[in-house]
Amino acid sequence: MKKTICKIVFATAALMAFHATGHAQASATATATATIVTPISISKTDNLNFGNVAVHATTAGTVVLSPGGARSATGGVTLPATPGTVAAASFTVSGEGNYTYAITLPSSALTITDGTNTMTVTDFTSTPNGTGTLSSGTQTLNVGATLNVAAGQAAGVYTSAAPFTVTVNYN
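Request: output the structure for the sequence above.
Response:
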């Protein structure tokens, strides 16, 4: 009889232990949220314009136009006293305030032509360079580049057949 009572006590204790574990559960809930930010956009304000350029008949050269609009010449290129229209390309970047963004400039040469003759534009640079910040939701992005002028380059107005692309993406 003592054995039977012991078995009943142990069985009851085991059942109570399992029953107590079942009540030890707890649960909580959470919600899901998302915030859609203002899409980033870019629009052109000014085109890239190297202005008036003169070149030596037998010596090639370059015109470097900084993102700030300053020009310098190398090799057989000179910059006439009458500069013509000189402008770095300018863009307005808009989006979510205080967000940063990455800037991607053309990595290949852009060909400009007068319909017969060509020159190339290379080495694009920008201010800001690489990354910008939309402090108040907008920022001006200026782009300069290098114009490669051949020796004896024919006179004329040279324009790109297709525009160059500047891409911006949120970081």
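Residues 2-22 form the longest helix (21 residues).
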